[in-house]
Amino acid sequence: MPLQWQKDMPIPHGILWLDLIDPDEDERECARKVTNLRIPLRHDIDSLALSSRIRTDDDAMYLSVPYFADCEGHHAPAPLGIVVTAKVLLTVRFAPSKAFDLAASNSDEHPWTSSADALATLLESIVNLAAGRMEAVAVDLRKLSERVFTRTRLGTAALRNCMLDVGHLEGQQTRNRSSLLGIQRIVSFVRSKSPEWMSDDVEVRLRVVDHDLRTLDEFDDQLTNKLQFLLDASLGFINTDQNHVMKVLTVASVATIPPIILAGVWGMNFKHMPELDWYWSYPLALAAIAISTILPVLFFKWRGWLSGD
């Protein structure tokens, strides 16, 4: 089990994994005495320079992920620092992590034999949970796709909710992508260094993790394309609805032009207008106005311009 440090705890000996969660100066000093390592500060882990994130110092490998988040909810991505030597694995994190809990529970069934073994278990747990989160996003995408592509005509409000769901899923996938990118760099670096104290079994496990990360990268591309497709489809349906509204308004405006002209002609105040002396002039005028309105609408309907509306 990783040792999660707390104040006033006795300094242990022979540990394989020391897990520091948002440590203060006292906890950092205790960890330094146990491991004889320089404990990285948060701003060291947050550094964006690749040379600062992944490097070797004597026999220790200093690894970091500036944006790491593997917990659901509103936990913001937080940096993760990893220092591994032939004797001990030291991790410094600033947020809860399901992957760390999973790796710790796995040690009960399969006790670690070395710090490299503990590192491999941690990386495997991170990748496995990330794969599960991506599969959950894929399931939500399928459900969202069924909502968008339906024969029932959706209103603008429903399509807006679909777009909000697309943005929510994209946010989840961005968190996954940021975490996995940092883990992929760590795995590639450790495999390239291949220290002598790393056993062949750990090397094989890291190779499998590297392959899984590449597969998840391809899966991420598929999900990203699907998210973009659903976003474009939702916008397309909204534009189609707007075009339908404009078409109806256009038909209505065209259909009302003839009666307006007729009413304008018969509303002129000239002295000599033959229609004024007709007995049936008023009902005939009303009938002419009604017919002039109905005929354009029937024409548009005959041409199919009102279909779907």
Which features does this protein show?
alpha/beta, 62% helix, six-stranded mixed sheet, 309 residues
Would you write up a description of this structure?
There is one protein chain. The chain is α/β, with parallel strands linked by helices. The chain has 2 domains: 3-242, no CATH class; 256-302. Helix content is 62%, strand content 10%. The protein has 9 helices and 6 strands, in the order ββαααββββαααααα. A 6-stranded mixed β-sheet has the order 1-2-6-5-4-3, with helices on both faces. Helix 5 packs antiparallel against helix 6 (156-193) and helix 8 packs antiparallel against helix 9 (281-302). The radius of gyration is 35 Å and the shape is rod-shaped. The two termini are 66 Å apart. The model has no long low-confidence stretch (mean pLDDT 83).
**Class per helix and strand makeup:** alpha/beta
- Strand/helix succession: EEHHHEEEEHHHHHH
Compute the average pLDDT.
83
Q: Main sheet, how many strands, which sense, barrel?
A: 6 strands, mixed
For the secondary structure, the number of strands is 6
What order do the strands of the largest sheet run in, or round the barrel if closed? 1-2-6-5-4-3
What is the approximate shape? rod-shaped
Family: Belongs to the CorA metal ion transporter (MIT) (TC 1.A.35) family.
Organism: Luteibacter rhizovicinus
GO molecular function: cobalt ion binding; cobalt ion transmembrane transporter activity; magnesium ion binding; magnesium ion transmembrane transporter activity
Subcellular location: Cell membrane
